[in-house]
Design a protein that fits this description.
The complex is a heterodimer. Chain A has nine helices and twelve strands. In chain A, 39% of the residues are buried. Helix content of chain A is 33%, strand content 24%. The radius of gyration of chain A is 20 Å and the shape is globular. By secondary structure, chain A is α+β, with helices and mostly antiparallel strands. Chain B is mostly beta strands. Chain B is 2% helix and 51% strand. Chain B is built from one helix and 16 strands. The radius of gyration of chain B is 22 Å and the shape is elongated. Classes of the chains: A alpha+beta, B mainly beta. Chains A and B meet through helix 6 of A and strand 3 and strand 5 of B.
Chain lengths: 325, 188
């Protein structure tokens, strides 16, 4: 039998492995009574995160005489939280999501995300869940070890500095000491950009690709939609998973304070304004529902990247059926 | 010269960095899930050939380099400069020893070379992949040996020294691969 059909982007072995991965995921959640849901891809509101750009479309029809701008979701998070707030209980979704501007070896403007929420979990318990899922869907031939680091611990370990307290000058010196020619126009006022530079250039390449590496407890300034724990300094209850040299998942102990959420959305839009980016309409239905959001943790896991790592491929385009051109 | 944003980066794009022209060898889009996106590029210095790594913030712009590759005929060397001519316009340019570099040992008058011009000035010269040059000096040929095994050094009319089979005689013309400096065959 021929492994590859005579079409680029169609590898029969990969097609089968993808189908198997999806079946195992559904089996994993069925066994735990987590409900599969579907939510709209199109929304009148959008993510405000200044580092994410939504693709836009336009609806013309009844009720929208001049056309209504609709954003393609970058993750099904807002809609799923409305379901949780309405009492859905544990839920998961396998969704196509869209991100403008992201294209590269490990990025595609359209990709498949697995997102799930567990009521009563915090980010620590959800990491256990992520680990269990990956072990269940990974072929038994792939040995899996695991390591968990606090964000702070990881910077101390690899760069010998405290990411929560170091000044921007020290971060810049550290970048230079590690042979990074610092990009021009790196704003001095924004510590997180410097942390991102060091994380992507100096730390990520040093993570053992053979093991599942969880990084958790992020700086409060990188909380996104996670709860902030009142430590000294405060910590965002957020985690990321790396495997095979790529970031696979991002999870939160979910914030359910609508006032705090609105402040963060508005702060995002403020940064957008400073950077000359368009302001995003806030998701008011989400904000209205958030006070009813049960204590829960949620995570989004990139399935194309997971399939890429599991099959030993090096480019996302090797595992996406008919990749973006 | 136009400037390019990181969105336009692709291999082969010529850009200016620290006052030198560079060509992008590889461009990688890097982005932490919730953070700043970067373009991490490998670039080749078109003057020195050295490859270095650079990082740009996504959306940053960089000035383009006015660099082009043109085919030109080699005319002569006056001891200081090598002169080349555009066969269509008959315009001539002169290249100095730095830009000609090791290519000088393969340059034969009338041969067509590829020149990389930056703002109209040659910064590198690439000889044809194969050149035919006469042997000016080598040990006399050993009759009967046609195996090509072993070999001996031979000096060519341009001054280059290559290893040739034992049967090759002074005065013969041979074909050489300039990329490896290896003897290919006898000519004629």
């Amino acid at each position: 039998m021929q492994a590859t059909l005579r079409r680029p982007g169609i590898d029969r072995a990969i097609l089968r492995q993808r189908a198997e991965m999806l079946a195992r995921i559904r089996h994993f959640f069925a066994a735990r009574e987590v409900l599969e849901v579907e939510t709209p891809v199109l929304s009148g509101a959008a993510v405000t995160d200044p580092n994410l750009t939504s693709l836009t479309s336009c609806f013309n029809g009844p009720g929208s005489r001049n056309g209504q701008t609709l954003y393609l979701h970058t993750s099904p998070e807002f809609a799923m939280k409305r379901l949780l707030a309405a009492g859905s209980g544990d839920i998961y979704q396998i969704a196509k999501v869209f991100r403008d501007g992201e294209l590269g070896r490990h990025h595609s403007p359209e990709f498949t995300l697995l997102e799930w929420y567990r009521v009563g979990f915090d980010h620590q318990r959800l990491m256990d869940d992520v680990s269990a899922l990956i072990r269940q869907i990974t072929p038994a031939s792939v040995p899996l070890t695991e390591q968990r680091y606090r964000y702070r611990e990881l910077f101390r370990l690899h760069l010998g500095l405290d990411p929560l307290q170091t000044t921007v000058d020290e971060l810049a010196n550290c970048a230079q000491a590690n042979d990074i020619v610092v990009p021009s126009g790196m704003p001095r006022a924004d510590r997180d950009i410097w942390l991102d530079l060091l994380l992507t250039h100096c730390i990520e390449p040093q993570l053992n690709p053979a093991q599942l590496t969880f990084i958790y407890d992020y700086p409060a300034s990188q909380a996104a939609l996670a709860r902030i724990r009142a430590d000294e300094p405060p910590i965002a209850e957020r985690f990321e998973l790396y495997w095979g040299g790529v970031e696979l998942a991002n999870g939160f102990h979910e914030l359910n304070d609508p006032a705090e959420q609105r402040r963060r959305f508005e702060a995002d839009n403020h940064i957008r304004a400073q950077r000359g980016l368009p302001l995003m309409p806030l998701d008011e239905p989400l904000l209205a529902a958030l006070s009813c959001l049960p204590d829960c943790a949620g995570v989004a896991l990139g399935l194309d990247r997971l399939l890429m790592v599991m099959t030993g491929k090096t480019r996302l385009a090797d595992v996406i059926t008919l990749p973006f051109e | 010269m136009a400037s390019y944003s990181t969105n336009e980066f692709k291999s082969g794009l010529k850009i200016m960095l620290d006052g030198d022209p560079y060509s992008i060898v590889e461009n990688e889009f890097v982005k932490p899930g919730k953070g700043q996106a970067f373009s991490r590029v490998k670039v080749r210095n078109l003057k020195t050939g050295r490859v270095i790594e650079r990082t740009f913030k996504s959306g940053d712009t960089v000035e383009g380099a006015d660099v082009m590759d043109v085919d030109m005929q080699y005319l002569y060397n006056d001891g200081e400069f090598w002169y080349f001519m555009d066969q269509a316009s008959f315009e001539q340019v002169s290249a100095d020893a730095t830009s000609v570099g090791d290519s000088s040992q393969w340059l034969k008058e009338q041969d067509v070379c590829q020149l990389t011009l930056w703002d109209g000035v040659p910064i590198s010269v690439t000889p044809p992949n194969f050149v035919e040059l006469e042997i000016t000096e080598t040990d006399p040929g050993v009759r009967g040996d046609t195996s090509g095994g072993g070999g001996k050094p031979a000096t060519l009319e341009t001054g280059a020294v290559v290893r040739v089979p034992l049967f090759i005689q002074p005065g013969e013309v041979i074909k050489v691969d300039t990329r490896t400096g290896a003897y290919v065959s006898r000519v004629r």
